[in-house]
Fold this protein.
Amino acid sequence: MKAVIKLGGFVFSEDRPLVADYVKLLRDFVGEHHLVVVAGGGPIARAYINAARTMGIPESLCDQLGILVTRLNARLLVDGLGEYAFSEIPVNIDELKHYFASGKIVAMGGLQPGHSTNAVAAIAAETISAELFVNATDVEGVYTADPRKDSRAVKLDEVSVGRLTEILSNADISAGAYDLMDPLALRIIKRSKIPTVILNGQDPQNLVRAVRYEKVGTKIVHD
């Protein structure tokens, strides 16, 4: 299976790093799945971005700082995977296509200001004609509202792109604030009808369930 996996920045957090667990799991996928793994920036990226904002640095440059952190996280994945990963981090789509042709796992971060790593992962999925796009977040899936703010929020097993767009319509899209998905990611998923699952990546075994097409998280459905 050709698949794109977006790992939220929490995977690389100092508090409870999961990167070693994911490296082991990804190694087990080699030979069975052909993967692109997109690393988020997480708290480290937000710390840099917040510091930049206090100095009045424009949002595009704040985004660039976040991109550098995501690429550093991707480098950690590459070094952890060793021979199983392509040795370089792609910084554009042409490089992604070239590195993916090697048959090795390609790890990457952000590409350009204004594009979240969720959008980058969707672009990667479209580029390689992925059979599955997994967005590993720090929540169980898509809820009718933010479950951290609304106790009445209900988890959805399936959601259409239109409904998800509506749910996320008030999301913050400033640098470092992208959440489950952003408008660009959703447009790409919709236009190419990319099979997509949003799940809780704090349990790495959920990724195993997703690639086995077991019921987990929230599946984005297409008309």
User: Anything to note?
Assistant: Strands lie at 2-7, 34-39, 106-108, 132-137, 142-143, 155-156, 158-160, 196-200, 218-221.
